[in-house]
């Protein structure tokens, strides 16, 4: 049996299904469309107050015809998510009063000179968002904060990121999968392309391709019939499970079909796939540090024609 180190040296790929291919791209016709632009990005952070209490903060950056701006919500490890609030102005401060286990939560933000990548909804520089719980800074994002925001190093970790795309056949983003503070950013690209079988120029058999930093990790052939599945890969020595469900792209009854892709880190090959874990075991993981390395990336790709793959 090969060791983890050996598997990692051999392209860091683990292939177990006949419909999945490895690094080779033989038999795949790759088009080069521009990646679709996300309409909405939601990031969830788990923050720890000096008192030991936790606070989950969700920020949704939205840029659609229906709504633009920043949406924020709060929850703790036991309570349900609080109502969502839309911060309409580019700069401001808002107090939310009693929220979760805290007497008061204050949010300050400044997006006046924010810069965005490729017209996406999430700023990459020239902004800041600060969250205070009972007068203590628990979350500080961005690079444009002044001295009034300097308050030590708040303790928080990004636990999940979800991106919503409308139309398109190529979806890309940039994320970190390893331990906070030491992880490198990686370019993740998911593409739905046409496949040719044995030289027959028939483009009716779509294939799903997954790339990390421009390198093909695996491909899923006969996607119309293999519309659900999972694959395990290694990124920076971290075990990452990828799951996909594109059933509605081909068989959905509505006007819009959604394809869902999730990449989630796992503690190691010896641990079970996250969705197979016992519910009682999940309930016992109440300490934030037990799951500090667990991260999930969710991509939802909607297409106006649910009876065919994205074009």
UniProtKB/TrEMBL annotation:
Domain of life of the native organism: Eukaryota
InterPro entries, per database record: DUF868_pln (IPR008586)
Protein name listed in UniProt: DUF868 family protein
Organism for this UniProt entry: Trapa natans (Water chestnut)
């Amino acid at each position: 049996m090969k060791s983890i180190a050996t598997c990692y040296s051999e392209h860091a790929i683990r292939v177990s299904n006949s419909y999945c291919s490895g690094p080779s791209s033989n038999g795949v016709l790759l088009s080069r469309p521009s990646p679709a632009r996300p309409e909405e990005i939601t990031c969830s952070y788990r923050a720890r107050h000096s008192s030991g209490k936790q606070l989950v903060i969700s920020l949704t950056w939205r840029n659609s015809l229906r709504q633009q701006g920043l949406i924020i919500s709060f929850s703790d490890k036991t309570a349900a998510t609080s109502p969502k609030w839309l911060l309409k102005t580019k700069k401001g401060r808002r107090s939310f009063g009693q929220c979760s286990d805290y007497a008061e939560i204050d949010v300050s933000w400044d997006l006046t000179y924010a810069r965005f990548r490729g017209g996406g909804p999430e700023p990459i520089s020239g902004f800041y968002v600060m969250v205070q719980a009972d007068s203590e800074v628990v979350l500080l994002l961005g690079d444009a904060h002044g001295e009034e925001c300097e308050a030590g190093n708040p303790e928080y970790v990004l636990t999940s990121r979800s991106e919503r795309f409308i139309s398109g056949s190529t979806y890309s983003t940039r994320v970190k999968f390893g331990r906070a503070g030491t992880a490198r950013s990686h370019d993740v690209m998911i593409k739905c392309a046409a496949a040719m079988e044995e030289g027959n120029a028939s483009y009716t058999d779509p294939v799903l391709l997954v790339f990390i930093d421009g390198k093909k990790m695996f491909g899923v052939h006969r996607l119309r019939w293999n519309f659900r599945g999972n694959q395990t890969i290694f990124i920076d020595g971290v075990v990452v499970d990828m799951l996909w469900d594109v059933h509605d792209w081909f068989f959905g009854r509505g006007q819009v079909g959604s394809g869902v892709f999730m990449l989630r880190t796992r503690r190691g090959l010896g641990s079970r796939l996250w969705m197979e874990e016992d519910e009682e075991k999940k309930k016992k993981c109440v300490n934030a540090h037990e799951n500090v390395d667990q991260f999930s990336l969710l991509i939802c790709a909607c297409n106006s024609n649910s009876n065919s793959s994205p074009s």
